[in-house]
Amino acid sequence: MNEPSRRIPYRTWPGALAVLLAIAAYVGGLTWWDRHTPGNRPLQPGETVEAGQARFVPAEGWEMDVSRSKAGQSLMLFKGGHKFLVTTFPWAGGPDGPLVRQQRLMERGQRLQIDGDVSDFITSWGLQGKTFAYYGSKLAGRFWQVVDVRRKSLVQIDFWGSSDGMDDALQEARSMLDSMDLEAPQ
Amino acid sequence: MNMPVFDQGDQSGQGSQQVTEVAGWPVGTDSFFQPRRVAFWVLAALILNGLFYTVYMFSLGVRVVPVTAFLGLTVWGIYTMLFVQAFRTLDLLEQHPTEAYVLAFAWGGMGAVYFAAPANVAIQSLCAKLISPEFVATWGPAIAGPVTEEFLKLAGVVLLVLVARNQFQTYLSVLIVGAMVGLGFQVVENLSYTVKSAVHFPLENQVYPVLLNLFTRGLLSGLWSHAAYTAIASFGVAWFLLHPQRPMVVRVAVAVLCFVLAWAMHFIWNSPFLEDLFDGGYGEMAVMLVIKGLPAIIVAALFWHVAARENGTYLHALAAWFVPERDLIQDDEWVRLGAPMQRYRVRREMGWTYGWRARRLKTHLQREQLRLIRKAATYGRGPQTLKHETAVRRLRAKLDPIIAAGITAKT
Questions:
Q1: A14 Cβ contact partners less than 8 Å away, ≥ 6 residues apart
Q2: Inter-chain CB pairs, A–B, below 8 Å
Q3: Which of A12, A50, A104 to mutate to test the interface with B (most CBs of B within 10 A)?
């Protein structure tokens, strides 16, 4: 101890390389494994699915993406290149606020364009809210939002995908929305 | 005890690096700027890579929730400063030059965060696919977070040790770097969560998410968060590094054990344990967070205690050999060299008894004594330590009259 420190040269490349390889193997390996593990779960025809208090009947051929669904919070369905995401949040503010933030997120964060104006919608089950369409360089979509003031909850439904087969997929998305109610047991 | 041999000559042309070749190699410690070492470039490249990612993510937040983003940056910046000030108050920052802490903080906040994000997503996604989304909702954070984040933060500590190995001569010197890596991770993660939570906050207000996150993540969780975990894991690295005489298997086992301990603390924190026992109110949540965080803070405190004691022994030995003059380090000051809390108490008492100026002078005096010991141990006594010797004498010359005047006034 009672010797001064010495600046003795030493090699760091084996250690540095080992750290770099360990990080690459860990992060890369996990990502690779995840990409090569299928995450689809086929749904039975007529089966009701739930995301928080929202429940609905998926259209035929749509499958659940389990890796992008969070139990009790969100549910992602997909069919071909089209996605249908239902997300529920707590709500305590003005009904239009979350919609404005969502538009800001899309326009400023995701570089998407809002197509036309926001309009009202109402489903056959009586769900009502606001909706707008949007598009980007490689995709187009439609966003619906329902605020349940009584339960202080917010349900956002986002549908998007490539323009191929968009009309049919949008029709199915509308039918899923039409089958939706907010009565799922919590 | 061998008599140390130093070059007492001037250092012109070499800066502070004396090049006495007594034992074949120059005297001194390596700086953390080492352009000829691969570890330095790996560290720098990964930090830079993470910096681009962090700036990109933050700019996204600025575009969507600008008030939250800037207020969050300010609040978490102040939060960081408070931690750094606490480390400084305990003289922990005297262990290394400033660049060590900058690199450590940057690794935690940028290098580690960049890799943690995709790895955590992949683990949670795999759990959802292989088990169920319900399982992930409950156990996902506990399974993904600890293993990924503790591993990545510790990788930065290892790289820093590789860059300037002879800067790490005590447990404490490794622990403080680990704590700084953890603090960097914690602060950038908190800022990221603050911005994300603002995007889907139940209210329109962009200030509330900042306050809420500061309260929950900063105040209720801050003490037993990443800084504590990484300090625990870093103790293993320190033990591995400072016990080369022990069998390799034992050194590796201690390092692994400390890592597992840090992982376990993090796992308990992220797990849903105890959540059923408390309702969703803030009061009960605070109680639950304290209960869950206590094991981590107790273990971290134990490790800090062991490290501080070892550092004390190290400083005592160095001071006895290199700075024997009693006018530079008096007996009572010598006794407290390795006890940061005692040193702090002395400063505080001095402030109460003799006023704020006396406290400030005592603080500077203690700090200069530490610097003198470290400089002397690194380069030997000579012109290179003269600055600190003069500073100690000058500070004492200012402090002693204040104390004498205070005693006279009392009597």
A1: none
A2: 164
A3: A12
Do A74 and A93 touch, CB atoms closer than 8 A? no
- The tokens of B382 are what? 């000579």
Please give the helix or strand (H or E) that residue A85 lies within, else none.
Answer: strand A82-90
Phi first, then psi, for residue A152 (nearest 5°) are 50, 50
Q: What is the pLDDT of residues B277-306, one digit of tens each?
A: 776 677 888 888 888 888 899 999 999 999
Domain borders along chain A are 8-37, 40-178
> CATH classification of A40-178 is 1.10.418.10, yes or no?
no
| Minimal CA separation from B108 to chain A, in Å | 14
Q: What is the DSSP string of B58-101?
A: HHHHHHHSHHHHHHHHHHHHHHHHHHHHHHHHTTGGGGS-HHHH
Lowest mean pLDDT among A69-78, A120-129, B4-13, B116-125: B4-13
Q: Is B88 exposed, middle or buried (0-12, 13-18, 19+ CB in 10 A)?
A: middle
Q: How far is A47 from chain B (nearest CA, A)?
A: 18
pTM: 0.89
What ipTM did this prediction achieve? 0.88
Report yes or no: B206 at the A interface, CB cutoff 8 Å: no
CB A17 within 8 A of CB B162: no
